[in-house]
């Protein structure tokens, strides 16, 4: 099984193909579309500059329709039939976990670009997004400081939400705060009346929200209707699904989100990227955080290939593990060889009652959690995901 | 059909009769040819092609489980995926916990048993409770949706059975391959082997069901489908007939679920969702619910098209096809294939028309 | 109304258990209510082995309801049914059929999409070995004058042929008691006569008991051993056709003056 | 304090009740009256919601935008009936496959034309506060009022008017109805149009509260099917009763155990209800009514 | 009142009726008899407009309601794009002149189908209301009149029609047709399944309706007594065509009548 067409060195048909499996329909289309577009932008830039190692890059990009089943089939197809040299795939953590066994079996170089709960320590997987440690680690202490120690957690009911919930508990513990209640809400749920009543019943200082997907957006609208004016901290809003633009103000008033990139970020590299993006996709509704991650990681891969002088995946991985530095739109960032994660510039984005954004407190945060658990892929090639619950006794 | 029991007639005998489409020599020739083509397919196209085709045959089996109960007993279950999914999860739970040949073998048995039991329970609840017609359809759908909702919220770490985490929306990952054996001795069926096992199961199921449907029980099923009240008045326990048929259908759906989960080593709650639940109904409608081969062909082709067609118009094309096929061919394609063959023959002035035959196997 | 008519004979055994020596079917205080409407009103009805009984009575008298109670299609509100020496009140329809009660519904209910041969196979396989199917099918087709139509789809048969097919199917089960609800409604005079002869022959040759509901009084006259008149759910009177015909009360409630 | 929790429950009940009734009404008419299982029901709602939202952004005031939503859905329904659906009368099961196909097409076309989302309309009327709690006025009081008005309207239309009697007669026996002077073709069309209009109304009413995405219709489907089954064959009575029962179950269990428990109990109630009442709530009701009538 | 020329009807490709000529004068009571399956119901349905004619003309009350003669149909080209679009939209009508059943009902045809086709899920009262909606304006015949003929219907006015006994359903079907004040009443075996005394009543009642309201009646029957007592004139039909016409005198002879009911 693991013998069939693994070596994607691009020699067999003369073309170099990379796989970009991003959702353009279904529950995650709203965030997936922009990820796909930014990948195409990066590939076009590479090809215009003469390709990688002189080869034009082709892309295999069917729509997985937010369906994990389909993701699996397409991942097999990408690896075995298309012989992709690198794979970008998936928005949700559930998707990532669904295809990771295949990726592992086939020893496929794989980039996962979504912000996520953290903890993946995997020899062929490179996690480009900010982790919960990086995002919540920035925004939760800030909120405790600003508003007080009483927290209420609402999160999407799957691995991402559950583990993010553990992180909120963990961070509360570290900062002498208290989690009053937690609700894990099934993906697709649209009615938040009782959730809002429960929050009101507990009367927290702020709400930590890790809601995900189209349906969950309804929460913010309903929060505004009922006049629930508790401030919110989040790792998932605005930077991905641009709720601040889709919803009428003041639905997102006092929403604080820990981000490494948003299109509103007013740095020069960020704005240059935004301009290039909208030049290629003038009708795109938004350029989100994940899209930036796709964009810089495609370029980073190309640099690694150039440096290695080959498309051979093992050698490219070795090159990536030598420690790369990239000039990303969010700023210059580094790849941590031991954990295959990025050190990110984390900001706290804040929406006011008119949904105007401001960014506070830029911090440069490393992926420390995996260091703490002892993940070192350069010496020990694992294929695991660690959770804080397993590792810290206090939560 | 012929008077003197030739070897061929004796071979064919148990598998044909007025209740099945396709009783001609032509049908059997295409059936054997189709099966042979499918058997050499991996040799021609390689292990990976076989491996990726395997899942379509699994869907074919799921479709057959519905065609059997719907086409021959008139019970439209919208919840075949419930048995399919439950068996998949059950296999996962057992085989993850007992990571050995014994575990996988037990997993297969448990998976099918759990699906059978669920179908039996549900069937008992419905048929002995006087639920009928479209209400059966909707109850089965609701059961699938309950499972969808339930499995969707099993993300928390409390939802682990031994080593096996149910995983909620994430699904259950790391399910072992299909294997039969005891302890450390046994056979593992991965890749092309999975394909052959599935093909074998599928052909055996089709033949077995054809025999069943043309047996006395089959006549009772058909009579129940045609007019339940009347059939009861001939002394048939129609309630039991429906119950038994439904349970067999559930067991087959369970078997396909086990094959499914061992193919992808993964299963998630979306298998219970309304879109997944609709698919077997669509395969059987399009392929012809009274034709096993037609249903299999429809499952293979439709699923292949869905994966193969990319681009934003794909779903528009698939949806329009469904509408057009049903409007143009209310009984599905299979009966029409026979008609078309006969028509061509008659026009060619050949031999007299035989009874309609089913479509050829579609070999992807 | 007269629930127990002096003409209804009961053996002591019947009084005890509802089972007489020759009695094939006996009901005791059989009652069916739809809401507040009593469709069957404490009926004590008995029929002997091999008897051909007609059940007549005004529209809405409860004849069809009574038959449905006997077959298990409806559950009685109260009362018991004895058949062939045992109580069958709580048996499911198919179990009653297995014990020898067979019914032909009011509307023809053959299997319209199956051929005549396949229609016959449904009851046949209940009672015969597969090796006997062809021989028995031929016999039955012959007896019921359906031979030419053997491979015809049943829905293409004429009304009269459908009626015959249905009786044939019911007879295939070799019942001891046949229940027929308006078997000749809508049939021509000629076809009515054919059916009448058929019923008489079966009754004589096969020793099958019949309960026949019919409004066609001429038909009743040609076939019936005895006639029971139902009225408002209860047994109004019972007797030979002539006795019933001459009963002024029966004329008033049912027959009208012109007969 | 307890009084406030009771109020929570009450508002949640109104919310659930309105949602179930409105999600169901169009489906129930089309299924109960016409024998078409409309798996594209959610997409009819989608059409209503999108048309409302787009009209609103085009400058119409919200009430008028909602009217536009209803009109658009009605036209959509009429076109579908004339081209496709009218061939499916009496073909219950085929109708499912065809409408499933329609649903795929509509969702995807919506996506192609309008992208993955539309800017949402804000919810009017704000919230009602009581003690520490508050609840959306629109989602509870306003929508429940609309739901009740819809039910009353349907009840009157289908039981008190000639149109209603004719529509029901047509569905039961088309040929006889025609020989009683009913233009059955037009009857089917109008009934389908009414069902479509109701789905459009649901879309219009929920447009200010839900995320405008091509898949928004799926969010209504489960409740709608469950309520249709629990309601039983006589939709006019069944829908409000099912809405009431299921709304209560949903509100109580959501209140006790959260969203998930609420949904699971909703579905379990449906299964039990079908088993205990094979003819739905209306079957039970009819039995009772019959008993009572006869007893007089 | 009704004039049928050369009518032919088929089910699919099977011809059922051919060369049927029937004339009914205003105020007449005309019977049609024939054995089973000869096409009586087919004829009545074709008159009512529930079946398409393959050939021939039907004139009702001076207006052509069906013209399927060759002359009429050749003009109306049903092929071509227009025809196909009409088919696709389901708006196609049969060739030539065609007045639909609903319109015929509104113009004064009343129909009582064979086999008690009442609306089973509507109440008795609602079934009657269906009849009434045909002729809302001039209601000579009202609920009260129906109830007078058939008291059981008043008693059961809120019962679902499907749960009535067979005979009760037949009464309802007749009452429902009468309440619409038809000019021409078409009855298909009204005595089937009805108790003898009520058959006699119905016979009398139909005569009364004919006399008092001037309703023309065309009925199909197998019941000898009804044919003899009700019909002023009678057509005999066999193998899909009219084979005889019996006047009042011949109707009184039992042999003459039974000839067409028996072989
Ligand atoms: N399901 C039911 N619900 C309510 N009433 C019913 C039901 N079935 C029958 N009835 C009533 O019970 C009475 C007896 O009906 P049944 O059909 O037994 O009459 P019948 O003697 O067969 O009459 P007919 O000769 O007209 O067929 C009638 O008044 C009928 O309306
Ligand atoms: N829908 C149909 N399709 C095909 N053939 C039909 C159809 N309906 C009736 N027939 C055939 O048409 C012929 C005439 O039927 P029709 O119902 O007009 O007879 P009828 O004279 O009314 O008989 P009856 O006395 O039994 O009511 C019969 O041979 C019948 O089998
Ligand atoms: N990584 C997430 N948001 O699932
Ligand atoms: Mg009766
Ligand atoms: Mg007839």
From TrEMBL, chain B:
Sorted UniProt keywords: Cell membrane, Membrane, Transmembrane, Transmembrane helix
Superkingdom of this protein's organism: Archaea
Listed InterPro entries: ABC_transp_permease (IPR001851), LivM-like (IPR043428)
A cellular component term, taken from the record's GO annotations: plasma membrane
Record bears the keyword Amino-acid biosynthesis: no
Membrane topology category: Multi-pass membrane protein
Localization of this protein: Cell membrane
Membrane spanning stretches: 27-50, 56-76, 81-100, 106-127, 134-151, 193-213, 234-261, 281-301, 313-330
Molecular function GO labels: branched-chain amino acid transmembrane transporter activity
UniProt protein name: Urea ABC transporter permease
High-level lineage: Archaea, Methanobacteriati, Methanobacteriota, Stenosarchaea group, Halobacteria
UniProtKB/TrEMBL annotation, chain C:
Keywords carried by this UniProt record: ATP-binding, Nucleotide-binding, Transport
Transmembrane regions listed in the UniProt entry: none
Superkingdom of source: Archaea
Residues of the ABC transporter domain: 25-257
Example of a GO MF term: ATP hydrolysis activity
Record's keyword annotation contains Nucleotide-binding: yes
Gene3D superfamilies to which the protein is assigned, alphabetical: P-loop containing nucleotide triphosphate hydrolases
Protein name, entry field: ABC transporter ATP-binding protein
Organism encoding this protein: Natrarchaeobaculum aegyptiacum
Lineage of the species this protein comes from: Archaea, Methanobacteriati, Methanobacteriota, Stenosarchaea group, Halobacteria
From TrEMBL, chain D:
GO cellular component: plasma membrane
Single GO molecular function: transmembrane transporter activity
GO biological process, one term: amino acid transport
Keyword Cell inner membrane recorded: no
Main location: membrane
Natural source organism: Natrarchaeobaculum aegyptiacum
Transmembrane feature ranges: 17-40, 60-80, 92-114, 138-158, 187-208, 220-248, 260-278
Keyword set, alphabetical order: Amino-acid transport, Cell membrane, Membrane, Transmembrane, Transmembrane helix, Transport
Family per record: Belongs to the binding-protein-dependent transport system permease family. LivHM subfamily.
Bilayer topology term: Multi-pass membrane protein
Location of this chain's protein in the cell: Cell membrane
Name the record gives this protein: Urea ABC transporter, permease protein UrtB
Cell membrane keyword on record: yes
UniProtKB/TrEMBL annotation, chain E:
Highest taxon of source: Archaea
Keyword match Transport: yes
Listed InterPro entries: AAA+_ATPase, ABC_transporter-like_ATP-bd, ABC_transporter-like_CS, BCAA_Transport_ATP-bd_LivF, P-loop_NTPase
Pfam families, per the entry: ABC_tran
GO biological process, one term: L-amino acid transport
Keywords: Amino-acid transport, ATP-binding, Nucleotide-binding, Transport
Coiled coil: none
Gene Ontology molecular functions: ATP binding; ATP hydrolysis activity; branched-chain amino acid transmembrane transporter activity
SMART domains: AAA
Keyword Nucleotide-binding attributed: yes
ABC transporter domain residues: 2-263
PANTHER family reported for this sequence: HIGH-AFFINITY BRANCHED-CHAIN AMINO ACID TRANSPORT ATP-BINDING PROTEIN (PTHR43820:SF5), HIGH-AFFINITY BRANCHED-CHAIN AMINO ACID TRANSPORT ATP-BINDING PROTEIN LIVF (PTHR43820)
Family label: Belongs to the ABC transporter superfamily.
Name of the protein: ABC transporter ATP-binding protein
